[in-house]
Amino acid sequence: GETQPLFVFHHGAGQSALSFALTARELRQRTNNQCAIACYDCRGHGKCNDDLTRTANDNDLSLARLTQDLVEVVRQVQQHPKQSIILVGHSMGGAVVVDAVARKLIAPMTGVVVLDVVEGSAMESLAYMSAFIQSRPVAFHS
């Protein structure tokens, strides 16, 4: 059968994967369970502070490090190399997903949802919006 799209959720600063629990449940219901969902606690947040997720530098919360963590999560949960990916990020998570998309680190990308992203990241992403909009179809054959 066809591989289900994978939604990967990245929460904001000071939050956890549970921030998206209701959204994930609603998404599964509305798609008749025809999607895969991954919500994770980024480093330094939620339950990721146990010994299983320790790294050489747990204090590195730079955009580059958080983006690389996102890439690693996608590699671990993506069921098939052609499985379409939809990234969803809130606030700090929005900056992370925008960075991953801008650097073309995750494929194949089907969509990106950014909720209440920090201003600097929002402004930086504007440079990519024109090319993205131009790449979208203007009509669909029915």
UniProtKB/TrEMBL annotation:
Q: Where would one find the signal peptide in this protein?
A: none
Q: Catalyses which reaction?
A: [phosphatase 2A protein]-C-terminal L-leucine methyl ester + H2O = [phosphatase 2A protein]-C-terminal L-leucine + methanol + H(+)
**Keywords of this protein's UniProt record, alphabetized?**
Hydrolase, Serine esterase
For molecular function, the Gene Ontology terms on record are: protein methylesterase activity
Recorded hits in PANTHER family, A to Z, give: PROTEIN PHOSPHATASE METHYLESTERASE 1, PROTEIN PHOSPHATASE METHYLESTERASE-1 RELATED
Its EC number(s): 3.1.1.89
Q: What name does this protein carry?
A: Protein phosphatase methylesterase 1
What broad taxonomic lineage does this protein's source fall under? Eukaryota, Fungi, Fungi incertae sedis, Zoopagomycota, Zoopagomycotina
Q: Locate the AB hydrolase-1 domain: which residues?
A: 7-123
User: What family does the entry list?
Assistant: Belongs to the AB hydrolase superfamily.
